[in-house]
Amino acid sequence: MEPIVIKRIYEDASENDGYRILVDRIWPRGVSKEEAKLDEWDKNIAPSTELRKWFDHKEERLHEFEIRYKEELADQKEELNRLLKIAQTQKVTLLYGAKDPKINQALVLKNILNQIV
Q1: How many other CB atoms sit within 10 Å of the CB of residue 96?
Q2: Which of 9, 53, 106, 114 has its CA 20 to 30 A from that of 71?
Q3: Is the overall model pTM greater than 0.85, yes or no?
Q4: Bridge-partner residues for 94, per DSSP?
Q5: What is the pLDDT of residues 41-82, one digit of tens each?
Q6: At what angle do helices 105-116 and 62-73 cross, to 10 degrees?
Q7: How many Å apart are CA 78 and CA 45, to the nearest integer?
Q8: Maximum Cα–Cα distance across the chain
Q9: Of the candidates 37, 32, 41, 30, the residue with the CA atom closest to the CA atom of residue 14
Q10: Could you tell me which Pfam families the record lists for this protein (predicted)?
């Protein structure tokens, strides 16, 4: 299994990123599709609009967000398995637009994917 990492989409793309997946439901402001250099934009595994708005990237809501997001992802087993299959052959970089590298859905998703393995 190759590593699954997270990276802010506003950082420059790198050859070392491997397979680049945007895991936000909304396209990040100020980033062109060319600059993003995505392999895919996977809205299916992004938090629902309702959950995203409730979370609002507030640290005190992170634990509850993790629980709710994991519940949402329970319906996305096929999609999660597809991502894990990609990670069997190449590094996967989960891209997010949030400002904080410790308070965002990509980090939660990475942890969930690593628990499945």
Answers
A1: 24
A2: 9
A3: yes
A4: 6, 21
A5: 999 999 999 999 999 999 999 999 999 999 999 999 999 999
A6: 50
A7: 10
A8: 36
A9: 37
A10: DUF488-N3i (PF22752)
